[in-house]
Amino acid sequence: MKAVLTSKNIKELSATIQVSGSKSESNRLLILQSLFSNLKTENLSESDDTMVLQKALLSNQGEVDIHHAGTAMRFLTAYFATQQDASVVLTGSERMQQRPIKILVDALRDLGAEIKYLKIDGYPPISISGKKIIKQKVSIAGNVSSQYISALLLIAPSLQNGLTINIEKSVTSAPYLHMTISLLQKIGVSCDFSENSIEVKPLSEIKNTAILIESDWSSASYFYSIVALSEASNITLRGYFKDSLQGDSILATIYETLGVTTQYNKEDASITLSKNNKPIADHVLLNLADAPDIAQTIAVTCFGLGLGCKLTGLHTLKIKETDRLLALQTELKKLGAKISVSNDTLVLMVSEKIKEHITIQTYKDHRMAMAFAPLALKKTIKIDDAGVVSKSFPTYWEDIQKVGINVNFK
């Protein structure tokens, strides 16, 4: 399904949008809910990834296919490895079978888990036979993916002796790690993070607990981009807190320099994004090591505004749904951008024109589709495989139409 996007030519964009719960918070809480049944949640994410994880947690036998859901692969590897009655083959899409999992598997094996590779060492699919884990200390590298550490943290309180995790090398995407720790503490888990070590005490049960999941800040990024690229806007997004657990909430600070002001409305837990007329620098320099999921949105926004940018700290983008750095380079070049990428850096030169009627390939990556869509405020643009947005934001196309972008499917 291809989407053809055009602007409705509305002078001032205005809408109120309800964004579903954070995928990151939802997926962590689903694992905890499976371990502690008296945990309840509200505003669970409607994303494909969360639905896939929910379904997977209903079975602990046979093949479990998580498709493109990378978070589910990491979290379920640790979860099933510690469930004594589990015997599963954990697999996924062709791309998922190219995404490494060795660091996590090695750590779990060190704890005594029984995990076997079925095709290529270090990559899914894997066979897992759940075992009782008694060992209480493990070391793991922190510079590849914080999800490996989060996977261990989530199962730690359910282990007989708890778990102490020694983190080697600096942690990438650190806010996601702090999110996991904060959620553990919210349900009553004793979790002590000091230096490069995290100690989690065992917990047999928790008090009846209900957690309201904040709306997804990664999803909010596309509306920040729309406001930045508009002439005038006033868009309200529901379900957001000023004291957020999500690292992507840094959007509010970043986009202030790109012409977007964020107003927090405590009474109804919402934010209002409005276009400001403050001077914008012609070059943006950002280290996004703690918020890599918003890199695509920021790069496209800068291109649409005719700005240059240098984005660093992007090494994790090469092992996502696609090699996001290469995909950004390819698709932005088609639109007329001068851009270069390396292992962890994207450099975009100032651009004067945007080519029209270009078809953007999404590479089965939801964020490619959503990041490029706001350019419709500047030129007619086509998005191939538009249905891919369901991975994290199923109502995306409906919601951007409410804001002021025409979406026609062909």
Automatic annotation (TrEMBL):
<feature type="binding site">
    <location>
        <position position="23"/>
    </location>
    <ligand>
        <name>3-phosphoshikimate</name>
    </ligand>
</feature>
<dbReference type="InterPro" id="IPR013792">
    <property type="entry name" value="RNA3'P_cycl/enolpyr_Trfase_a/b"/>
</dbReference>
<dbReference type="InterPro" id="IPR023193">
    <property type="entry name" value="EPSP_synthase_CS"/>
</dbReference>
<keyword id="KW-0028">Amino-acid biosynthesis</keyword>
<protein>
    <recommendedName>
        <fullName>3-phosphoshikimate 1-carboxyvinyltransferase</fullName>
        <ecNumber>2.5.1.19</ecNumber>
    </recommendedName>
</protein>
<keyword id="KW-0963">Cytoplasm</keyword>
<feature type="binding site">
    <location>
        <position position="320"/>
    </location>
    <ligand>
        <name>3-phosphoshikimate</name>
    </ligand>
</feature>
<feature type="active site" description="Proton acceptor">
    <location>
        <position position="293"/>
    </location>
</feature>
<dbReference type="InterPro" id="IPR006264">
    <property type="entry name" value="EPSP_synthase"/>
</dbReference>
<feature type="binding site">
    <location>
        <position position="147"/>
    </location>
    <ligand>
        <name>3-phosphoshikimate</name>
    </ligand>
</feature>
<keyword id="KW-0057">Aromatic amino acid biosynthesis</keyword>
<comment type="function">
    <text>Catalyzes the transfer of the enolpyruvyl moiety of phosphoenolpyruvate (PEP) to the 5-hydroxyl of shikimate-3-phosphate (S3P) to produce enolpyruvyl shikimate-3-phosphate and inorganic phosphate.</text>
</comment>
<dbReference type="GO" id="GO:0005737">
    <property type="term" value="C:cytoplasm"/>
</dbReference>
<feature type="binding site">
    <location>
        <position position="145"/>
    </location>
    <ligand>
        <name>3-phosphoshikimate</name>
    </ligand>
</feature>
<feature type="binding site">
    <location>
        <position position="391"/>
    </location>
    <ligand>
        <name>phosphoenolpyruvate</name>
    </ligand>
</feature>
<feature type="binding site">
    <location>
        <position position="147"/>
    </location>
    <ligand>
        <name>phosphoenolpyruvate</name>
    </ligand>
</feature>
<feature type="binding site">
    <location>
        <position position="146"/>
    </location>
    <ligand>
        <name>3-phosphoshikimate</name>
    </ligand>
</feature>
<dbReference type="GO" id="GO:0003866">
    <property type="term" value="F:3-phosphoshikimate 1-carboxyvinyltransferase activity"/>
</dbReference>
<dbReference type="GO" id="GO:0009073">
    <property type="term" value="P:aromatic amino acid family biosynthetic process"/>
</dbReference>
<feature type="binding site">
    <location>
        <position position="99"/>
    </location>
    <ligand>
        <name>phosphoenolpyruvate</name>
    </ligand>
</feature>
<dbReference type="GO" id="GO:0009423">
    <property type="term" value="P:chorismate biosynthetic process"/>
</dbReference>
<feature type="binding site">
    <location>
        <position position="24"/>
    </location>
    <ligand>
        <name>3-phosphoshikimate</name>
    </ligand>
</feature>
<feature type="binding site">
    <location>
        <position position="70"/>
    </location>
    <ligand>
        <name>phosphoenolpyruvate</name>
    </ligand>
</feature>
<feature type="binding site">
    <location>
        <position position="28"/>
    </location>
    <ligand>
        <name>3-phosphoshikimate</name>
    </ligand>
</feature>
<keyword id="KW-0808">Transferase</keyword>
<feature type="binding site">
    <location>
        <position position="367"/>
    </location>
    <ligand>
        <name>phosphoenolpyruvate</name>
    </ligand>
</feature>
<feature type="binding site">
    <location>
        <position position="173"/>
    </location>
    <ligand>
        <name>3-phosphoshikimate</name>
    </ligand>
</feature>
<comment type="pathway">
    <text>Metabolic intermediate biosynthesis; chorismate biosynthesis; chorismate from D-erythrose 4-phosphate and phosphoenolpyruvate: step 6/7.</text>
</comment>
<dbReference type="InterPro" id="IPR001986">
    <property type="entry name" value="Enolpyruvate_Tfrase_dom"/>
</dbReference>
<comment type="subunit">
    <text>Monomer.</text>
</comment>
<feature type="domain" description="Enolpyruvate transferase">
    <location>
        <begin position="55"/>
        <end position="399"/>
    </location>
</feature>
<dbReference type="GO" id="GO:0008652">
    <property type="term" value="P:amino acid biosynthetic process"/>
</dbReference>
<dbReference type="InterPro" id="IPR036968">
    <property type="entry name" value="Enolpyruvate_Tfrase_sf"/>
</dbReference>
<feature type="binding site">
    <location>
        <position position="293"/>
    </location>
    <ligand>
        <name>3-phosphoshikimate</name>
    </ligand>
</feature>
<dbReference type="Pfam" id="PF00275">
    <property type="entry name" value="EPSP_synthase"/>
</dbReference>
<feature type="binding site">
    <location>
        <position position="23"/>
    </location>
    <ligand>
        <name>phosphoenolpyruvate</name>
    </ligand>
</feature>
<comment type="similarity">
    <text>Belongs to the EPSP synthase family.</text>
</comment>
<feature type="binding site">
    <location>
        <position position="324"/>
    </location>
    <ligand>
        <name>phosphoenolpyruvate</name>
    </ligand>
</feature>
